[in-house]
């Protein structure tokens, strides 16, 4: 394959592949934030305690 003739298609495919990899990386790391999990638990406890009293 001659790179001078196919540089545009190689560039487009590379960019699409990089975007796909970034999206998949973000999706896999979406639920790993421990601080957010802690905040959600605390907020849920506050909500429940307000409902009881």
Describe the structure.
The chain is mostly helical and 53 residues long. The protein has one domain. It has two helices and no strands. The longest helix is centred in the first third of the chain and has 26 residues. It is rod-shaped, with a radius of gyration of 23 Å. The mean pLDDT is 78. Keywords: Membrane, Transmembrane, Transmembrane helix.
Describe this protein with a few key phrases:
mainly alpha, rod-shaped
Task: Explain the layout of strands and helices.
Blueprint: H1 3-28, H2 34-52
Transmembrane segments: 6-26
Keywords: Membrane, Transmembrane, Transmembrane helix
Radius of gyration: 23 Å
Q: Globular, elongated, flat, extended or rod-shaped: what is the shape?
A: rod-shaped
For the record, give the distance between the C-alpha atoms at the N and C termini, rounded to a whole number.
Answer: 73 Å
Low-confidence stretches: none
Helicity, in percent? over 70%
Secondary-structure element order, N to C: HH
Structural class: mainly alpha
Arithmetic mean of pLDDT: 78
Total beta-strand segments: 0
Total separate domains: 1
Main pleated sheet = none
Approximate strand percentage: under 5%
What count of helical segments does DSSP give? 2
Transmembrane segments: 6-26
Keywords: Membrane, Transmembrane, Transmembrane helix
In short:
This protein has helices at 3-28, 34-52. With 53 residues, the protein is mainly α.
């Amino acid at each position: 394959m001659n790179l001078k003739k196919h540089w545009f298609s190689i560039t487009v495919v590379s960019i699409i592949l990089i975007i796909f990899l970034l999206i998949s990386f973000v999706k896999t790391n979406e639920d790993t934030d421990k601080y957010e999990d802690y905040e959600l638990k605390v907020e849920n406890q506050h909500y429940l305690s307000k409902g009881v009293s």
